[in-house]
Fold these 2 entries.
Entry 1:
Amino acid sequence: MKKLISKHEGDIGIGSMIIMILTIFISIILIMAYTSWHTKLAVKDSIILTVSSYLKSVETAGYLTAEQQQELKAELQEFGLENISFEGSSLVPVAYGNRVYLHVTGRLHLQTTPSLVITDQIQFTQDSYMDVDITRKGTSFY
Amino acid sequence: MKLKKMLRRKKEGAVEGIVICLVLIVCLIMITLYSIQLRIAQNEKYETDEAVTIAASSAQLVDLYQYASTGENVLDCTGNGNSGGKYSQPYEATKEACRITFDRFQEHLAMSLNLSEDLTPSENTYIKKVEVHEFTIYNVMNAGVYTCTFNGSDFTETQYDPDFHTTKMIKGKERAIIQTSVYVDIEFTVEIFGKTYVIPITEYVYLKG
């Protein structure tokens, strides 16, 4: 009788433990996934807003000047954007009324989200990358 | 007997525990998905709103000819900002300006939101439908206000108000039109993980002169 009881108790205990650990584990992964998503969207928002605000000055100048390129690059680098390229943008003055383009490509490096390291083999880091490709079209007011 | 009862109880408790854990996991997954869905919808709202404002603002080009000859800030009606005296017939010129400004607005908006030129959505965006309810331009000249509207299908005939009494309900408030400007009423339908959201946007943008 005693043996039976102890066996049963043990079984149930381990089962519950596993399920509980699993629940905690899944919860952590979900929370991390959510944080990661949230950060990605928030950073993307900021980048789009920054690029769009530069379109106004590009329209006024008639093209993307070298100073604007430097400023925009510095601002975007603060968000963690790498390999920034302005290829496809209007880089020479455009006549009044014609189209100006602002094309920004790069790779967003996200390091800000928390990471979970259990062992060297099992770890959940959020060192993720996201490609950014933004094109804006305006009218030259120069 | 007592022992057996105890055993049963414990078993039931364990099963309950498992069920609670599973319910918790399912709840967590649903909450996460729902939050992400809402966050994407919010993001889409920001993006479309910003794109509409920027497109409306950069679609408005001052007609240089009219500015140089009379000092009036009116919208371009030829596509290159040089009307060459077309504004001597303000009705036709305003209608033409409305068409050109709307074309430009559409073009800029399409580029910002990855849509095709006539605003039909492509497959890899959340946007499923774009409906332009109203696109109105106001040309404020020395002689009065000339108004032309694109109502989603046609351009209406130009209306003339010599007394500068034109008003417009903008975001629930009636405003007098005192400056050359554009009013846009547009609606986006976005689909995120199978759920549809409708984003109505109205913007009133002045000409930067």
Note: The mean pLDDT of chain B is 85.
Entry 2:
Amino acid sequence: MTPARVTADHNPLRDPRDKRLPRIAGPCSMVMFGVTGDLARKKLMPAVYDLANRGLLPPGFSLVGFARRDWEDQDFGKIVYESVKEHARTPFREDVWRTLAEGIRFVPGAFDDDAAFDLLAATVADLEEQRGTGGNVAFYLSIPPGSFATVCQQLERSGLSTPSEGSWRRVVIEKPFGHDLESARELNDIVGSVFPADAVFRIDHYLGKETVQNILAVRFANMMFEPVWNNRYVDHVQITMAEDIGIGGRAGYYDGIGAARDVIQNHLLQLMALTAMEEPVSFDAHHLRLEKEKVLSAVRLPEDLSTGTARGQYAAGWQGGEEVVGYLEEDGVAAGSGTETYAAVRLDVDTRRWAGVPFYLRTGKRLGKRVTEIAVVFRRAPHLPFTDTATEELGQNAVVIRVQPDEGVTLRFGAKVPGAQMEVRDVSMDFGYGRSFTESSPEAYERLILDVLLGEPPLFPRHEEVELSWRILDPIEEHWGRRGGDPDQYEAGTWGPPSADELMRRDGREWRLP
Amino acid sequence: MIVDLPNTSTQAVSKRLVKLREDTGAMALSRVLTLVVVVDEAEAEQAIDTANDASRQHPCRIIVVVTGNRRGTARLDGQIRVGGDAGASEVVVLRLYGPLARHGRAVVTPLLLADSPIVVWWPTDAPKDPSADPVGAMGQRRITDASRTSGKPRTVLGRLASAYAPGDTDLAWSRVTLWRGILTAALDQAPFEPVTEATVVAAPDSPSGELLAGWLSARLRCPVRLAQSRRGTGIISVRLVRDSGPVDLVRPEDGSTSMLRQPGQPDRTLALPHRGDAECLADELRRLDPDEVYEDALTVGLPEVGSGRRSATEAVRAGAAPSPAEAEKDTRRLRRAAGAASSSARVEKLPMPEDGASSESVQQAAADRLAEMEEKRS
């Protein structure tokens, strides 16, 4: 009996049929910049703990925090502990915590301080020796894009960005990926000059959500949806991402950016690409991106941007049971700011499949409720063998993919109302993710962080996609800038300005009530 | 809500289920599978609790078949639990008495969910041939638990192996998933050398240890030996021997913190907790296709495993297995070296660190720490 061969690509203990075996990342450490931020506290650190708790982090995994604070390791440990206690999804286990805590380090420093980055380099080297992280490091830049250049240069200067033989360095950046095409390119050049393209992971946390991945499963694993997924049957598509909150304390970031750049450029265009793309040859990163890029490059803007787009700004009003101030009265917003908090746009996709089917994208803050959904609305049946009165209440059929909250899929179709008369009315059939599967599906960030550590990129948008999205959005922003004037005001707690309803009405359609 | 239906029929149970659904809304409509639990009275409650827990991840209808006294007249007692008493599932408990006790299939059939998979679970003694059992034959998947089936683990597993049919699986197998994951990840790293020999140290009453050894033998195609630790200790250690030195994964008796040791690498501690039944059951419900890897471990690998009567101490003395006592000592040493207060009780006592600092003090801190570190290095 000769023992099974072991090579870098062939591990005899791995078997494609073994679906139980967890994908555990190889030895590595993670350096987190911006650990004092909200995202790090509420999402990233809890996600790291949850991964550890699920046994998916490698033995010896270490977490290094970097911030402009005069802290010791144990102070940072306390920060991680508190955030885990409060926000982790999985229960607290003492031994998991202890193992994680042993690998927690903190580096005090400002981004422009050479000594701080030398200390970081020494800390990383030390961890490699002490805890066997194998020289593999992921840098998570949870910081404003303005600081990317400094940090990247520092990483290069201190030798942190160059992996030794047989190890890897990866960098994770969060949206926004620039604020227009030009700045996106600049940003890409900065990061690209230090890290090779396949080491850059752009996180769009929406893409880590189960329901978003489910769009692909619904479309391509089933027989019953794809045949009607085209302009012969589909009338139009509405993609909505509504938030009920205002800008909160984010005025500094939000003012001057606005809803379109903040949401449409990344989340909504990605959802649209997944909804509209052709079937990929396979589900690996390369083929998925090819199809998404194809769709994004086929997007056509409305000829008249003043009627094909709408923007608004929330005014004071009652949101649920609470009286809230308007955008202009929020702390930190420039007087007379023209930043939009609501944006709606009609897009067409110039392909055989989608010719003549408009995609309506809308997003806003302080809307009726928090909801994200994709509604594929079908044409009416060409002939109804009923009397007019029988089908008066019948709407258009729809497949609605609910991304959040209450993730799932709804089908809307007509059914007979019980009784002696023939009367058809809309009913909905519901698939709730939480009801059919797990109550505790992993957080998007868990999946994404694990993918970074494993080096699996399918869920991360590539720079080309980012560029294509900006190509779509830039003319709209330019148009809004050129036309000047302030966005239309809408009362908080409503579904956007009248101009957005006008946009739909001109096409003979109306917004769904999500 | 718990509804008792003494001395009843399956039609009445079925009717009541529909009525409950109408009263409380569409609760059973998106159930994805039926879990049939075959158990005796003494173990019933615990099994229901475990199944409820697991159903939080996989909402299902749980049908519990409790076999009561086989003497006397045939009688069926039903009980329906929904809402708070049933986790994310609906539970139907059927107690069978008299001649009916032999006909579990007859009472289960009318209550199965339409067009969805059926999983059968025997929390304790499994039938000798699960797929030939009348209830077992209905299931796409049959879950046994060798650790709670009476008999020596080797004998029980041998019986399961000779009766194996696609869809069979065992909770003792899901209990070793974490071990398998860590060992696999260890072989993903350099040096890439074949494993020439392996030793698993486990308690003589642990079928999980046997299955782990069987899996290693089937996958690595090298001699795999078992050594016995004290009863009730579960799996203690695995050693994979390679030319450059052994890979050791040790979990000392006391608990859940383990150590991974590889040549040319620092020792690493990791959490390797004992997995609860509910977690393992939920794992089993996640996939409903045959588990070929389990089949290989059970039917191909396990017969090859040497079951020498060597005790763990002898194995350690002979240098075939790592010493758990040493690993424990090293774990403690690593803990101390890590320095920072790591136990939650100590972290809890720390004050919240100050938010905000002057640029100078941060710069000074960085410079000081760097100097300190460089000194330590040189």
Note: The mean pLDDT of chain B is 86.
